[in-house]
């Protein structure tokens, strides 16, 4: 057997298993790669609420990442919840030495249940330290609006925002339109050219961890050698299968998780 590609995820921990580092590890593993993980924060959350966020010291985050990069042949990096300015700087200091590594940045700002996860100083640090090192950023509408400084409500505004953010940060932007109303969901990628990814809306309350799942899947396919648009297309297909399978489950009493093992263990309708 050929060694699996190693994908490093840098993110927060979700004890309910639906989002964060747990969702990343499940996604990377389900897609046949090897997941290494550096934890930035410990959250107290479930499918209903986030009640506490405890950020780990930046030096501890840095040393976790360094331990992985010193030993494992990492093919791609996914960055999720960072939380703090010092943590962002620590991550950046290591990745600056590894510009060969493609980075997928999911600029997590607010949890599915509505809890803010990133402070103002950290928000200002993302464009300074992490966006310049990223192959692609994957904000939702709220996150893209925050980065742009203007509200985004339509597909045309998504296009304008993606191109503006690309020009500002020299990083490809995939703006996710899942929070927009309508039977069809549209995500817009601008990497110097526009690419559009459409999919039918799946009627389910189980959306916990969708952003984490998509970004770690994109990193996995990039690590496998796919060009960015193809990596996103394959990641979207995987996400839709996980969403469809998860829609038939009831795990928890709130916004439930996806079923990341839909390909290996299909859910009977």
Major sheet: arrangement of strands: 3-2-1-4-5-6-7-8-9
Q: Unreliable runs, pLDDT <50, ≥5 residues?
A: none
**Helix content estimate:** 25-40%
Order of helices and strands: EHEEHEHEHEHHEEEHH
Helices and strands: which structural class?
alpha/beta
The N- and C-terminal alpha carbons lie at a distance of 34 Å
Commentary on this structure:
By secondary structure, the chain is of the alpha/beta class. It contains eight helices and nine strands. The chain has a nine-stranded mixed β-sheet with strand order 3-2-1-4-5-6-7-8-9. α1 crosses α7 (210-223), α2 (58-71) packs parallel to α3 (85-95) and α3 (85-95) runs parallel beside α4. 49% of the residues are buried. The mean pLDDT is 94. Residues 14-258 form the Pyridoxamine kinase/Phosphomethylpyrimidine kinase domain. Its EC number is 2.7.1.49. This is hydroxymethylpyrimidine kinase.
């Amino acid at each position: 057997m050929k060694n699996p590609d190693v994908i490093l995820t840098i993110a927060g921990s979700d004890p309910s298993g639906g989002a964060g580092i747990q969702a990343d590890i499940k996604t990377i593993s389900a897609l046949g790669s090897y997941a290494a993980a550096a934890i930035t924060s410990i959250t107290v959350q479930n499918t209903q609420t986030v009640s506490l966020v405890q950020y780990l010291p930046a030096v501890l985050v840095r040393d976790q990442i360094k331990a992985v990069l010193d030993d494992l042949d990492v093919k791609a990096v996914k960055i999720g919840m960072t939380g703090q300015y010092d943590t962002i700087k620590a991550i950046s200091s290591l990745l600056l030495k590894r510009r060969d590594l493609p980075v997928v940045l999911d600029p997590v700002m607010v949890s599915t249940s509505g809890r803010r996860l990133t402070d103002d100083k950290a928000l200002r640090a993302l464009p300074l330290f992490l966006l310049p090192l990223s192959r692609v950023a994957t904000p939702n509408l709220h996150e893209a609006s925050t980065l742009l400084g203007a509200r985004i409500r339509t597909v045309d505004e998504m296009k304008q925002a993606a191109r503006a953010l690309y020009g500002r940060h020299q990083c490809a932007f995939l703006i996710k339109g899942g929070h927009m109303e309508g039977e069809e969901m549209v995500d817009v990628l601008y990497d110097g050219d526009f690419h559009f990814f459409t999919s039918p809306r799946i009627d389910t309350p189980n959306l916990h961890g969708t952003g984490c799942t998509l970004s770690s899947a994109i990193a996995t396919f990039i690590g496998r050698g796919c060009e960015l648009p193809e990596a996103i297309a394959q990641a979207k297909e995987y996400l839709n299968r996980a969403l469809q399978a998860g829609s038939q489950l009831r795990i928890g009493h709130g916004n439930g998780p996806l079923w990341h093992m839909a390909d290996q263990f299909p859910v009977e309708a």
